[in-house]
């Protein structure tokens, strides 16, 4: 246990001096610069809005399904249990 704590601590101390890894070898190339220019051009916000526009509609549909009208009838309770099955009379409920 003690040795693993020392190892973790020493790695944390040495980590700021570690050489940075280059994840993408093409990031500084001419092709990468042209791709960035194509993405972040003058019509960037138009394309961003066109990509995001369907999501409020989808969220609205989900809200409509979740909070929409139900097929059940809502009745007010008068404080006493009501007979939901009319074929069973109140006197025969306990006998079934």
Write structural notes for this entry.
Helix content is 48%, strand content 0%. The chain is mostly helical and 96 residues long.
What's the arrangement of secondary structure elements?
Layout: H1 2-14, H2 30-39, H3 44-52, H4 54-67
Return residue spans where pLDDT drops below 50 for at least 5 consecutive residues: none
Shape: flat
How do the SSEs run, as a string of H and E? HHHH
**What is the makeup of the main sheet?**
none
Helix fraction by DSSP (H/I, runs of at least 4): 40-55%
Beta-strand segment tally: 0
Instruction: Report how far the terminal alpha carbons are from each other.
Output: 68 Å
User: On the 0-100 scale, what is the average pLDDT?
Assistant: 78
* Residue share in β-strands: under 5%
Q: Count of helices? A: 4
Please outline what is shown here.
With about 100 residues, the protein is mostly helical. About 50% of the residues lie in helices and about 0% in strands.
Keywords summarizing the entry:
4 helices, 96 residues, mainly alpha, flat
């Amino acid at each position: 246990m003690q040795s693993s704590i020392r190892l973790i601590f020493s790695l944390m101390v040495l980590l700021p001096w570690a050489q940075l890894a280059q994840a993408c070898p093409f990031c500084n190339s001419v092709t990468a610069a042209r791709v960035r220019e194509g993405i972040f051009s003058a019509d960037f916000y138009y394309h961003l809005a066109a990509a995001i526009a369907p999501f409020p509609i989808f969220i609205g549909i989900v809200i409509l399904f979740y909070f929409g009208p139900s097929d059940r009838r809502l009745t007010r309770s008068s404080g006493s249990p009501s007979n939901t099955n009319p074929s069973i009379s109140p006197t025969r409920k306990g006998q079934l």
